[in-house]
Write a structure and sequence with these properties.
Blueprint: H1 3-23, E1 29-30, E2 36-37, H2 42-46, H3 57-62, H4 64-68, H5 71-76, H6 86-91, H7 135-147, E3 150-157, H8 167-178, E4 184-186, E5 198-204, E6 207-209, H9 211-216, E7 230-232, E8 244-252, E9 265-273, E10 277-283, E11 286-293, E12 296-305, E13 312-319, E14 324-331, E15 335-342, H10 356-366, E16 368-374, H11 388-404, E17 409-413, E18 419-422, E19 425-428, H12 432-445, E20 449-451, H13 453-457, H14 463-468, H15 483-510
Parallel strand pairs: 3-15, 3-16, 16-17, 17-20
Antiparallel strand pairs: 1-2, 4-14, 5-8, 6-7, 8-13, 9-12, 9-14, 10-11, 10-13, 18-19
Helix pairs in contact: 8-15, 11-12
Length: 512
């Protein structure tokens, strides 16, 4: 082919493509529920527009200390005494750690009111601005040191909180101010690829049962309990007279707060075993205590008192039948416990599909006082024009959970910003604000508080600014926070919570 014909061919192709680009809809053509056919716009080919990401400079300036903090500083920030040796642990399992070994922390400095010049604080929001929806929990905080109670905060969420991200900071700050130790309650079999604030290793034939097990018919009941899962070291409905074995080894983590390695009691929440089993508590290779646990047909608890700071502890179970183990808690005897409960793939609408009477009994047993609900990222990739269906489903969950205990309060943390590539540029998903509004509406209708994480991050197109920061505050999936980013966002939430708690204390003092 002659050169001029080749040139003419390419010019023709270019003109045809340019014409298609010119007339093709800028937002593409919707082919299906979640499929959009797009064509490059000719303006974007020749003109490179600078991406307009949210300015988070105020956030970075305010949280510079947390961003620059080395991980070893986080680990050692509550280390005020040398770790106890094995001898006092083995000699006196019933002894207590004296309260004065826990560092005392002053009430946090109150942040300036939102919308005033120079502030970056995102405060909690309330239905009809009625802050009394959290007064029950605030009242528990106020009397906690004098009451000697152990109260629980349950932090439910999606993959955004896996690995104890966000929860660990909130836990550490609450325990520093109001008392408490340990990592809280966790499932015996956790989601693969995640970890706790301690390293967990399993031996034996462990199986994890979740809401999916109910849907698939793998279990013939709906008792999932407070952690929305349970674990077993023997098969369900096993008819074999075979001794089964399960072991849970917990070791210190180098990426968490030292306070998590201190606890005074280990409790196991279990039930529905048709045969007795043996449970042992070990420190390395030394057995500290053992229990012969009888047959059970309801929710039960057994516990071990522990004195000391353990870098490693092992729980061993043996028997011809396994109980359903609904949770293991490493706590103080009093103060506040905060549980990290990630439900990967969930949008927070499965609670009503479980045995609610059983869930109520477990909430009662663990003394749950506050629930934090943090979901949304699993909805974002499935773009819809209307999320009223989700608002109704989410409202049903919140209303149901509140009904389980008259004194339980709920805070909903809204969906975070997420980015996608659109015509060569990173931008926020177009449905994030609709999901956020559905969550807020559901929260307000159910009488719950709401914290807007999306706005706290900086609003639209803020995620790239978190990712591109040095050091990065979010991962390059433009969805999940890094460890440092999770510290920053959880500190923002905690300050908002404590701001309203301090306001509550002021009002209580005035009204006396």
């Amino acid at each position: 082919m002659k050169p001029y014909k080749i040139l003419l061919f390419f010019i023709t192709i270019f003109l045809v493509l340019s014409l298609i680009s010119y007339v093709f809809p800028v937002n593409g053509i919707q082919l299906g529920k979640n499929i959009v056919l797009q064509f490059p716009n000719i303006k974007n080919i020749f003109v490179t527009e600078e991406s307009k990401y949210a300015d988070i400079s105020q956030i970075l300036e305010y949280h510079q200390a947390e961003i620059n903090q080395d991980i070893t500083d986080i680990i050692e920030d509550t280390l005020t005494e040398k770790r106890d040796s094995l001898k006092p642990i083995a000699d006196s399992l019933k002894a207590e750690i004296y309260p004065d070994t826990i560092p005392k922390v002053d009430t946090i400095k109150q942040s300036p009111p939102k919308n005033k010049p120079g502030t970056i604080t995102q405060f909690l929001e309330y239905p009809d601005n009625d802050k009394s929806v959290l007064y029950s929990f605030f009242g528990n905080l106020k009397t906690l040191k004098s009451s000697g109670e152990l109260i629980r905060v349950l932090h439910y969420g999606d993959s955004q909180i896996e690995g104890d991200r966000i929860t660990s900071y909130i836990r550490n700050e609450l325990q520093k101010q109001f008392g408490g130790l340990g990592i809280g309650m966790f499932a015996p079999v956790i989601i693969k690829g995640t970890n706790l604030s301690m390293q967990l290793h399993l031996n034996g034939s462990w199986e994890r049962y979740t809401i999916q097990s109910i849907k698939n018919g793998n279990i013939n009941h709906k008792r999932l309990g407070a952690l929305m899962s349970f674990g077993r070291f023997a098969p369900v409905n096993s008819s074999e007279n075979k001794m089964c074995f399960g072991e849970i080894n917990l070791q210190k983590s180098n990426i968490t707060y030292f306070r998590t390695r201190k606890f005074k009691q280990c409790r196991v929440f279990y039930g529905y075993n048709e045969r007795p089993f043996i449970a042992e508590l070990k420190y390395k290779d030394q057995t500290l205590d053992a229990e012969l646990v009888p047959v059970s047909h309801h929710l039960n608890t057994f516990s071990w008192d522990i004195d000391g700071t353990l870098d490693e502890v092992t729980l061993t179970f043996k028997g011809e039948d396994s109980p359903d183990i609904y949770g293991i808690a490493l706590d103080d005897m009093k103060g506040i416990a905060v549980d990290n409960i990630p439900l990967r793939g969930s949008s927070g609408v499965d609670f009503t599909k479980t045995d609610l009477a059983f869930l109520r009994s477990m909430y009662q047993k663990i003394n749950a006082k506050l629930i934090i609900m943090q979901f949304g990222v699993n909805l974002v990739p499935y773009i819809r024009d209307d999320y009223s269906y989700y608002e109704k489903q989410f409202y049903k969950q919140l209303k149901t959970l509140k009904s389980l205990r008259p004194d339980i309060n709920i805070i909903v943390i809204g969906v975070s910003d997420m980015s996608r590539k659109h015509i060569g540029q990173l931008e926020s998903y177009p449905n994030i604000e609709k999901i956020r509004e559905a969550q807020k509406n559901a929260a307000f209708k159910a009488g719950c508080a709401f914290w807007d994480m999306y706005e706290a991050m900086g609003g639209k197109n803020s995620m790239p600014s978190w990712v591109n920061n040095n050091p990065p505050l979010a991962r390059t999936d433009y969805t999940h926070f890094t460890w440092k980013g999770s510290v920053v966002i959880s500190k923002m939430f905690y300050e908002a919570l404590m701001h309203d708690y301090n306001e509550y204390l002021k009002n209580e003092k005035i009204n006396r």
